[in-house]
């Protein structure tokens, strides 16, 4: 509480938040910092994207937070990995590989397949 009181010396303290008057006379809420670890290349690409669309990285992340709070969900679909790697497909691939190793597969060249199609 001492920290909040020190932060709010020139403002009004409501609950644990500090509301202060901005230079233009408007009210502003205290800001907090979120720290997240992401790959350097991803951060650089995200920063460049934000710059291209006229946003700061901080503004873009604030938009994300506001969307989560407004919609009460992550504002984009989160889905399972590519269905190619589903359990049934992986089983089929393993069985196919075993059949190839066991010599139970007929191998034809493209020329042979084309000749069969012409028949």
Summarize the structure.
This protein has five helices and three strands. With 119 residues, the chain is mostly helical.
The helix/strand series, from N terminus to C terminus, equals HEEEHHHH
Multimeric state: single chain
- Report the uncertain regions: 1-16
Which class of secondary structure composition applies to the elements?
mainly alpha
Q: Using DSSP, what is the number of strands?
A: 3
Q: Count the DSSP helices.
A: 5
Topology:
Blueprint: H1 2-7, E1 12-14, E2 17-21, E3 27-29, H2 40-52, H3 57-71, H4 87-101, H5 110-118
Antiparallel strand pairs: 1-2, 2-3
Key features of this structure:
single chain, about 120 residues, mainly alpha, 3 domains, three-stranded antiparallel β-sheet
Describe this structure in words.
- With 119 residues, the chain is mainly α.
- It has three domains: 1-32, no CATH class; 34-78, no CATH class; 83-118, no CATH class.
- The protein is 49% helix and 9% strand.
- The protein has five helices and three strands; from the N terminus they run H-E-E-E-H-H-H-H.
- The chain has helices at residues 2-7, 40-52, 57-71, 87-101, 110-118, and strands spanning 12-14, 17-21, 27-29.
- Strands 1-2-3 form a three-stranded antiparallel sheet.
- The radius of gyration is 29 Å and the shape is elongated.
- Residues 1-16 have low confidence and may be disordered.
């Amino acid at each position: 509480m001492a920290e909040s009181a020190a932060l709010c010396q020139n403002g009004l303290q409501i609950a644990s938040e500090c509301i202060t008057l901005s230079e233009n006379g408007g009210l502003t809420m205290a800001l907090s910092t979120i720290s997240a670890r992401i790959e350097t290349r991803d951060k650089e690409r995200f920063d460049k994207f934000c710059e291209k669309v006229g946003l700061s990285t901080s503004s873009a992340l604030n938009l994300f937070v506001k969307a989560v709070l407004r919609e009460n969900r992550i504002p984009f679909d989160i889905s399972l990995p590519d269905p190619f790697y589903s359990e049934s497909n992986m089983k089929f691939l393993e069985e196919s590989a075993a059949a190839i190793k066991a010599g139970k597969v007929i191998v034809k060249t493209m020329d042979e397949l084309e000749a069969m199609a012409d028949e």
